[in-house]
């Protein structure tokens, strides 16, 4: 039975460092929703204003923005004020997941495995972070995604340049223990006790370098879905993905990124609350392996759209 979602806005573009990916994601979702007979309309948050968004009279919106001002809770807060139901996590969960330092602190409190780390706000602390974490290590901006500003540091003399690169995108730097092993990711759908993990995906990039080009532009990266892990380990990783998702208060959909070390221990790296939906993207890949088409995935996510704060405020 079809559902009338009314006039739907597909929010894409934005003004973060991930704008180009967002444009591709939004176009894909827009086409998928239209193919299902849904009255969907593209709306570029990087070219339009919030007042213009309010004038569109959307009944609900599908957020396809990645990075700041779209995935970090700021847009979610504006939509709560406007009373427009939206897909994905709410203000707090979006903000926490976007901040890799806060995510890791919460996971540690829940006893979930995540690599050791140091938050750097001053270059004077670089040497101490290298001593604590050892080499190699990873330096990245805590509030960016799509590997923007990420550097692997193999030698101590490379650390300062890596710090400077990351600081170009943020006000602090996350220095993180490097985990050698297999790169995995797990899409998650739903909320709370109903949250469910899709099949685990293994990512094999040329030279182990899963950078922006190998994520979105190149066909050289290989993806294995479901990953060849064995039932017990696969279920463990899927369970960790859901636990990490719920610990942050996520809902609607998301994607947990992992490293699986050489001893078979999975380590949580980050949670994405508005993952890519391009032809190279991983959530659609996981959904397909679970028997869910791209278009049906988009409809399921759209169906979960709601205001998280106003639903409570209106009862007061």
UniProtKB/TrEMBL annotation:
Pfam families: Dala_Dala_lig_C, Dala_Dala_lig_N. Pathway: Cell wall biogenesis; peptidoglycan biosynthesis. Its cofactor is Mn(2+); Mg(2+). GO terms for molecular function: ligase activity. Its main location: cytoplasm. Keywords: ATP-binding, Cell shape, Cell wall biogenesis/degradation, Cytoplasm, Ligase, Nucleotide-binding, Peptidoglycan synthesis. It catalyses: 2 D-alanine + ATP = D-alanyl-D-alanine + ADP + phosphate + H(+). Residues 104-303 form the ATP-grasp domain. This is D-alanine--D-alanine ligase. It comes from Alcaligenes endophyticus.
């Amino acid at each position: 039975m079809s559902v009338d979602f009314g006039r739907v806005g597909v929010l894409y573009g934005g003004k973060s460092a991930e704008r180009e990916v967002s444009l591709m994601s939004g176009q894909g979702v827009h086409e998928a929703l239209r193919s299902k007979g849904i009255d969907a309309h593209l709306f570029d948050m990087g070219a339009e204003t919030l007042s213009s968004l309010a004038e569109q009279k959307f009944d609900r919106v599908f957020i396809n923005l990645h990075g700041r001002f779209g995935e970090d809770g700021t847009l979610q807060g504006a939509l709560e004020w406007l009373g427009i139901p939206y897909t994905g996590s709410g203000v707090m969960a979006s903000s926490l997941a976007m901040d890799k330092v806060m995510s890791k602190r919460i996971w540690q409190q829940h006893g979930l495995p995540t690599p050791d780390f140091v938050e750097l706000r001053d270059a004077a602390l670089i040497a101490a972070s290298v001593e604590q974490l050892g080499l190699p290590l990873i330096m990245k901006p805590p509030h960016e995604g799509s590997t923007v500003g990420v550097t692997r540091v193999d030698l101590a003399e490379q650390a300062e340049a890596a710090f400077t690169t990351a600081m170009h995108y943020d006000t602090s730097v996350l220095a993180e223990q490097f985990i050698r092993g297999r790169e995995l990711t797990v899409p998650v759908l739903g909320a709370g006790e109903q949250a469910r993990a899709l099949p685990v995906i293994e990512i094999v990039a040329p030279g182990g370098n899963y950078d922006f080009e190998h994520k979105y532009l190149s066909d050289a990266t290989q993806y294995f879905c479901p990953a060849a892990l064995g039932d017990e380990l696969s279920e463990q990783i899927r369970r960790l993905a859901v636990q990490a998702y719920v610990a942050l208060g996520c809902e609607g959909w998301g994607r947990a990124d992992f490293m699986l070390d050489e001893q078979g221990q999975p380590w949580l790296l980050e949670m994405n609350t508005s993952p890519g939906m391009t032809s190279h993207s991983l959530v659609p890949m996981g959904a397909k392996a679970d028997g869910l088409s791209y278009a049906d995935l988009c409809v399921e996510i759209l169906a979960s759209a709601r205001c998280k704060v106003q639903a409570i405020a209106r009862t007061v």
